[in-house]
Amino acid sequence: MTPEQMQLVKASFSTIYRRKRQAGTLLYSRLFAMAPQVRPMFGEDIAPQVEMLVTMVTAILRAADDEEKLRGLLRPLALRHAAYGAVPAHYNAVGIAFLGTLDDILGDRLTPEMRAAWGAAYAEVAQRMIALSSEAAPANL
Predict the structure, then answer these.
(1) Whole-number pLDDT of residue 136
(2) Which of 28, 71, 116, 140 is the most buried (most CB within 10 A)?
């Protein structure tokens, strides 16, 4: 990501944060419709997951300039996702659901540049999560 893209992401996050429950509910509804196979990975009540998602995105944005801190945030999450059976295709579905949710929440305020910035941010986090989750795979002896 470029510094300009990071600024766009951070600047638009406050709007998303103010509508976090709506955004989270919409994201998970969209995700479960697109990829019903991931639904069993979540509890019946999605509200706690929405809160965890917003908390994690907030923490990731705050740590974006500190590689060690960012890895410290992402590693346990990636390992937990791996334990639940998450695979790269799941991250792709989440990315599509996430960008669609941004379209709905931000509407006309979501410029093409801002959408590209969020797409780049998500792609970077997803790639790191996939790489870190491979640490959970048993070593071939």
Answers:
(1) 59
(2) 28
- Residue 21 and residue 54: Cα distance in Å, rounded? 9
Rounded Cα distance, 96 and 100, in Å: 6
Relative orientation angle of helices 67-84 and 112-133, to the nearest 10 degrees:
70
Residue whose C-alpha is closest to residue 77's, from 134, 11, 132: 132
Give residue 141's pLDDT.
39
Give tens-digit pLDDT for 93-102.
999 999 999 9
Closest CA to 5 of 116, 133, 82: 116
Task: Give the domains, in start order, of the chain with CATH numbers.
Answer: 3-134 (1.10.490.10)
